Amino acid sequence: GAGVSQSPRYKVAKRGQDVALRCDPISGHVSLFWYQQALGQGPEFLTYFQNEAQLDKSGLPSDRFFAERPEGSVSTLKIQRTQQEDSAVYLCASSSMGRTNTEAFFGQGTRLTVV
Amino acid sequence: AQSVTQLDSQVPVFEEAPVELRCNYSSSVSVYLFWYVQYPNQGLQLLLKYLSGSTLVKGINGFEAEFNKSQTSFHLRKPSVHISDTAEYFCAVSEPGDDYKLSFGAGTTVTVRA
Fold first, then answer.
1. Phi/psi at B10 (nearest 5 deg)?
2. pLDDT tens, residue by residue, A37-60
3. What's residue B27's pLDDT?
4. Residues with Cβ < 8 Å from B72, sequence gap 6 or more?
5. Is the pLDDT of residue A66 over 70?
6. What whole-number distance in Å separates Cα of residue B37 and Cα of residue A73?
7. Is residue A91 within 8 Å of residue A34, measured between CB atoms?
8. Residue A101: pLDDT band by 50, 70, 90 thresholds?
9. Average pLDDT estimate for B65-85
10. Which runs of consecutive H residues, i.e. helices, occur in chain A?
11. What is the distance in angstroms between the Cα of B91 and the nearest Cα belonging to chain A?
């Protein structure tokens, strides 16, 4: 597709359930990012991939959060044993450049609600 | 580490009036600066960016921003807004050493009224 695609758009999970959020970046984009946007806040950095290598995961809030990009294209953000504080919009972005984040293209996000 | 403060959470404005959205950042080093816009039900879209050079930056849709190093500010302006400018606007910074990582402000919701 022409842009960054995320699925599902909406996800409701019961507390304690595991979830997997998918991101399809723009074809050929080297860099991929995940951000978390809580209600009324700006996005916060979670993790960064360059191709299949996860170069920075310093923003992941706990060891329940795990991201992968095994073939350097599609990425999955997995959250284990979801908690209410995990409710947020999860944004994926991709960029054609390596470490120079001069323009990142964002998907529409996945809205996760933990009940 | 950088922090970004957007001083106004909500800005109502009449159509064809000017608008200014304020952004201040705190950083001890040089930064890259960005403004993103999020229209309803859409992803974040880059409006403009400052990397170096001229402090007045022009972006898409008639927006411009001015980098002021002494005041650590990067305010966004548009001389005449349209109904279609109704959206949420985010200021963001990154540092050249970690330039893949954006730190965002909390956002400013602009509502344009006829």
1. -135, 135
2. 999 899 999 999 999 999 999 999
3. 78
4. B24, B25, B26, B27
5. yes
6. 26
7. yes
8. low
9. 96
10. none
11. 9
* Residue corresponding to tokens 């022009």: B58
Nearest by CB to residue B46, choosing from A35, A91, A103, is A103
The alpha-carbon radius of gyration of chain B (Å, integer) is: 13
Distance separating alpha carbons of residues A88 and A21, to the nearest angstrom: 12
Q: Which residues of A touch B6 (CB under 8 A)?
A: 42
Three-class DSSP category at B80: coil
Name residue B48's beta-bridge partners: B35
- For residue B1, pLDDT over 70 is answered with no
User: Based on C-alpha coordinates, what's the Rg of chain A?
Assistant: 13
Cα separation of A27 and B20, whole Å? 36
Q: Are the beta carbons of A42 and B94 separated by less than 8 Å?
A: no
The C-alpha atoms of residue A54 and residue A92 are separated, in whole angstroms, by: 14
- Asked if the model's pLDDT at residue B105 lies above 60, the reply is yes
Exposure on the CB side of residue A51, measured as CA atoms within 13 A: 1
Of the pLDDT bands very low, low, confident and very high (cuts 50, 70, 90), residue B74 is very high
pLDDT at B45 over 80: yes
Interface test with A, best of B8, B100, B108 (most A CBs within 10 A): B100
